[in-house]
Amino acid sequence: MSQVKFAIPKGSLEEATFKLLEKSWTKVNRKNRTYRVFLDDPNIIVKMLRPQEIPTLVYEGLYDVGITGKDWVGETKSDVESILDLEYGKIRLVVAFPEKYFYKNLDSMIADYAKKKKILRISSEYLTTAAKFLKECKSYKKYYGSKEPSIVTPWVRLGTNKNVQIHLSFGATEAKPPEDVDAIMDVTETGTTLKQNKLKIVDEVLTSTAHLIVNKKSLKDPKKREKIFDIVTLMKGAVRGRKYLHIYLNVEEKNLNKLISQMPSLKRPTVSPLSEAGWYGVNTVIKKEEFHKLIPKLRKIAQGLVVHEPRQILELEEIKRDEEN
């Protein structure tokens, strides 16, 4: 079987990624101060990289599979297959500027600056996304047509519209206004840091979570495809496992039908007779969100409730159908 190269993120997504890996594989080893990670599958070669780099490296074929924020896939314009939403690392990319400004959004700021012939400066790590968002604003189209906003970095300057500039930020973007730039496009979870710096959110550009992405050529390679779907199966099972509880309880025969009729399950509960006549063990998997609703009912008709959080829930038949399609 061919080896598959797997890039995982270092930084803000790192801790949650390792938690998911540890639920997906039985052995995950990382040596201190190295970027190499070892799973219990020798055919998966894992390395830690910055999430900003991963989409491009997967697209170029240097890695077959990667984990990164969906925001970076869009920012880098990487033509990869986003195969699984891992449902962690949720962020919002927003536009913000000082609270004292009277503008209601970036569009109105663009219009006012254009009328006054003032240069509008925006700071962001997301140069491509910021340029796209600006060009979609009505005021930008009205005053600047199809001109590309200027992109300013220490190494290169791009774009033809010098009146609207996007300055590359290397971090602490929220500290830039009002002295260095007029507005920012930055990532936030709660908005607290922006408020502490006396900035207000005026536009939401996008929301993003961590995704498992795949190189399209690797996905078509028969040998690599099999190993890639092993990864997808295991990680999808771990993602799904976070949403469910595995419960086991005992019930008298007279209450058995009532219990089963009231109990939700993944498919159908497993019912087994106990060594004591007239008693049964019921074993099932339910959604976490349904557990609190079930407790009042179980207290009245069941005993010995045992609750586990499943490591994984693998829908092997579903994955098999996906592979065949």
* Count of separate structural domains: 3
Proportion of strand residues: 25-35%
Shape: elongated
Q: Can you give the helix content as a percent range?
A: 25-40%
Instruction: Give me the strand/helix succession.
Output: EHEEEHEHEEHEHHEEEEHEEHHEHEEHEH
Question: Could you tell me the radius of gyration in angstroms?
Answer: 26 Å
Strand order of the largest sheet: 2-3-4-1-5-14-6
User: At the fourth CATH level, what is the homologous superfamily of the largest domain?
Assistant: Periplasmic binding protein-like II
Any idea of the CATH topology of the largest domain? D-Maltodextrin-Binding Protein, domain 2
Structural class: alpha/beta
Key structural traits:
D-Maltodextrin-Binding Protein, domain 2; 12 helices; alpha/beta; seven-stranded mixed beta sheet; 325 residues
